[in-house]
Design brief:
The protein is built from five helices and eight strands. The protein is of the alpha/beta class. The chain has an eight-stranded mixed beta sheet. β1 (11-16), α2 and β2 (33-40) form a beta-alpha-beta unit. The N and C termini lie far apart (38 Å).
Length: 176
């Protein structure tokens, strides 16, 4: 299901957190795309920076601010592995809508998240969403061609999500 979508891609593609060797080999074999890879940067030592991504040229950037590397609506497609950047989950919808003008493909494997929860984050911006669920594996395909980014709307949803997560945490704490 994911391989078929990857074969259709053309233009600039940004891979965020993708470690799957088969997917990367499939992307690199496609001559119609320009590929950018953002991978987790794990620094050994006492003061490790867990929330950083590393570009192939060696510079690292905070994962919440990766959109500073790309201009608004400058990337054709995004491919995101949500398992590797789960701590960035609450910012992923706004930042990916900001930089992408084509298709956003989010995939992962989790018992906590499913395709409908991930798609709920993107329904705020667009209605053109396709979800595929197979057991605990999911794939969400978002058409971001007609979306618009609003700064105030983004801040509003971050506040709403924070209160929602706080309520979930309190209810989990009280029931356990």
């Amino acid at each position: 299901m994911l391989n078929d979508e990857i074969k259709k891609l053309q233009g600039n593609v940004v891979c965020i957190g993708v470690n799957n060797k088969k997917l990367l080999k499939l992307l690199k074999s496609n001559n119609k795309i320009g590929l950018y890879e953002l991978v987790r940067y794990k620094k050994s030592g006492l003061f490790s920076h867990k929330r950083r991504v590393k570009m192939p040229d060696g510079k690292s950037v905070k994962i919440k601010k990766f959109r500073r590397l790309f201009k608004k609506k400058s990337i054709n497609h995004l491919l995101i592995d949500l398992n590797n950047i789960f701590d960035y989950y609450k910012y992923i919808a706004a930042n990916s809508i900001y930089i992408c003008k084509g298709t956003i493909i989010i995939y992962g494997e989790s018992d906590y998240l499913n395709a409908s929860l991930v798609a709920q984050k993107f329904r705020r911006y667009t209605k053109n969403i396709t979800t595929k669920q197979n057991g605990n594996k999911y794939c969400v395909i978002v058409d971001a061609s007609d979306t618009k980014y609003r700064w105030l709307k983004d801040k509003y949803y971050i506040i709403i999500d924070t209160f929602h997560n706080l309520g979930d945490f309190i209810s989990y704490f009280l029931t356990s």
